[in-house]
Specification:
By secondary structure, this protein is α/β, with parallel strands linked by helices. Helix content is 38%, strand content 22%. The protein starts with 10 loop residues before the first strand and ends with a helix. The relative contact order is 0.11. The structure holds magnesium ion. Magnesium ion (MG) is lined by residues 96-97, 238, 240, 242-243.
Length: 445
């Protein structure tokens, strides 16, 4: 399979091996060639981020565009800054939740939304052709500095019921995973009058405390501290703070799908109905909660830019992925870790219930995933269409059964097919998964 430079998250790779200073320079020249005017550049707390950011800035300036350097900032803060400032585009240097040796470079449009697949292809063409705009010596761009973190924190606080939250004096443990959230989430909590306990809330690109992805196995310390200090809630972020995951007041991790369902339900109820957008790989618990609240779920292909795009098209009231990436359209059409934190507290305050109580009624499913080697994407897709008439073919095939569902989709970046199965019992989920493996092998044999 042909591997393009731009994946689902811009360009990503091991710093100084795959993602070199030269490549970062060319990416800076690319965005400077595509978008004139002012371009905002931010980065996460990784060791290689200042090197790559400097190269990106040099590339932008060499094209004649000006740059605004906002330093270490969460991805949603950079996106929000691009949306509300004079910047025509943005660049974020981050590898999100990947291991510390990785880094990445992602482009953002003037409206604060990540580049679409089409825009990424256009960027790749400019990059590979090397037909960059080169400014004359006296027309090279300039670089300014600004504080995107302050702009972001202020805007998050404008979008939540500060009084209701402040009154509660919530005791909150926040684990920033030594990432960019260190500059925003503690500040949000402070201004919400929370009694705050911070862990790993100083930027350190070696990630000394835990792996960056805020999944349950990586946030053991958070669970322990929540129990030890008798907190109301615990929150953890990934390296670029577009994701947030939560621990309830008993110290139990709440699955990301369940949090997505809870917040989707909150937004549907608040709006008296509406559309919630999520990828086809998301747990059925989200649809169950949304439908019960009088809303409707629209499924998209996997990847947050497509979720954001469909949210815009459908005027959705809410959206997100089942990995802790929640999207609040009244703020930003992008995964938004700071808003997630503030809005969960708002829900706890206005409902006057602890988190464990709020998620009690969200249905629980057993989800299983596996992968099967698949070198012929087209053959698989055609076979799936023949096999499962009437299924959802947004991304591979999502097939609904009375007691569960099955998703078979060829990966966009690797020669594999991903298979997901979900059911109310683990036994049934296993059966569906085995069936999925069998069908996939039959089609591609
Ligand atoms: Mg991330």
């Amino acid at each position: 399979m042909e591997r393009s430079l731009f994946g689902t998250n811009g360009v990503r790779g091991i710093a100084n091996e795959e993602l070199t200073a030269e490549l970062a320079l060319d990416l800076g020249r690319t965005i400077g060639t595509m978008r004139e005017g002012l371009i905002a550049v931010g980065m996460d707390a990784r060791i290689s981020s200042p090197m790559l950011k400097s190269a990106v800035l040099a590339g932008i300036m060499s094209s004649g565009s000006d740059a605004v350097d906002v330093g270490i900032t969460p991805t949603p803060a950079l996106q929000y800054y691009v949306r509300v400032s004079k910047a025509n585009a943005g660049v974020i240097v981050t590898a999100s939740h990947n291991p510390r040796e990785y880094n990445g470079i992602k482009f953002v449009s003037g409206d604060g939304v990540e580049f679409s697949r089409e825009e990424d292809s256009e960027a790749e063409m400019v990059l590979l052709s090397k037909k960059f705009r080169i400014a004359r010596w006296d027309e090279v761009g300039r670089v300014y500095e600004d504080d995107a973190n302050r702009v972001y924190v202020d805007s998050v606080l404008e979008k939540v019921n500060v009084d209701a939250i402040s009154e509660k004096k919530f005791r909150v443990v926040v684990d920033c995973g030594n990432g960019a959230a260190s500059f925003t989430s503690p500040e949000i909590l402070k201004r919400l009058d929370c009694e705050m306990y911070t862990i790993n809330c100083y930027p350190d690109g070696r990630f000394p405390a835990r792996l960056s992805e805020p999944v349950e196995e990586n946030v053991r310390e958070l669970k322990e501290v929540v129990r030890a200090v008798n907190a109301d809630i615990g929150v953890a972020h990934d390296g670029d703070a577009d994701r947030a995951t939560f621990v309830d007041e008993k110290g139990n991790f709440v699955s990301e799908d369940v949090m997505l369902a809870l917040m989707a339900k909150y937004y549907v109820e608040m709006n008296g109905g509406g559309v919630v957008v999520t990828p086809v790989s998301t747990s059925k618990c989200v649809e169950d909660a949304v439908v019960e609240a009088g809303g409707e779920v629209v499924y998209t292909a996997v990847g947050s830019p497509i979720v954001a795009k469909v949210m815009k098209e459908t005027k959705a009231v809410f959206g997100g992925e089942g990995n802790g990436g929640l999207i609040f359209p009244e703020h930003l059409l992008a995964r938004d870790g700071g808003m997630s934190l503030a809005k969960v507290l708002e829900l706890m305050a206005t409902e006057n219930k602890p988190l464990s109580e709020l998620v009690k009624d969200i249905p629980r499913y057993h989800t299983l995933k596996t992968k099967v080697e698949c070198r012929d994407r087209k053959k698989l897709l055609e076979g799936l269409k023949a096999e499962f008439e009437g299924a959802n073919f947004t991304d591979g095939a999502r097939v609904d059964f009375e007691d569960g569902w099955l998703l078979i989709r060829p990966s966009g970046t690797e020669p594999i097919a991903r298979i997901f199965a979900e059911a109310r019992t683990e036994k049934r989920a296993r059966e569906l998964l085995s069936f999925g493996i069998l069908i996939t092998k039959k089609i591609i044999s």
